[in-house]
């Protein structure tokens, strides 16, 4: 970690004389998910060449989410309704130098999809409206926060001197794969004066990646193999316990 700090500090000091208001980069642009993956931390370093505030947004690839609502039917709890949200970020986390409501205007946040209220969780009125839509949205947020893929508390941005800053993001063990965008905003008086976006790839590698690809490319055969393996394992277990 100390080596990375020295390297990034040197690079950003060299570029501080340039006209760009902000520079930023990641310690690594690849998160490799292996069989023993238990989560990871992403380190971001940056530099601003003038006073202001900084917001960093990490956004995962868009995907669809289905939310189920349970109810009692004849005394039995079961799924009684469902709602599908389309093109929702699979991961969302923010770091900032202060509360985003204080360091950025509402128009700025809306235009740049900063904050949970601006990332496309709204339902079309043809699906739900009013309090019903809010209830479905709250249920989706609860699920995503519980999974760790949405992080309610903003991560802290720490300044290392007058210009250099750093922050870290936590990726849970169940982090979705795909190409993420890491956007860094330099703000003054609530408005963005410069921004940088860099990609981050989260990918399965090794045997787990091969199994994952096979399961998606040959789903029928994968299902048959899974059933056969389960039956053989059960039969072997039965033989062992019968002998015991």
From TrEMBL:
Q: Can you tell me where the transmembrane regions are?
A: 220-241
Keyword presence, Transmembrane: yes
A Pfam family name for this chain?
Alph_Pro_TM
Q: Does the keyword Transmembrane apply?
A: yes
* Highest taxon above the source species: Bacteria
Q: Tell me which UniProt keywords the record has, alphabetically.
A: Membrane, Transmembrane, Transmembrane helix
Q: Which InterPro entries match?
A: CHP02186-rel_TM
Protein name (record): Transmembrane protein
Organism of origin is: Kiloniella litopenaei
| Lineage start | Bacteria, Pseudomonadati, Pseudomonadota, Alphaproteobacteria, Rhodospirillales
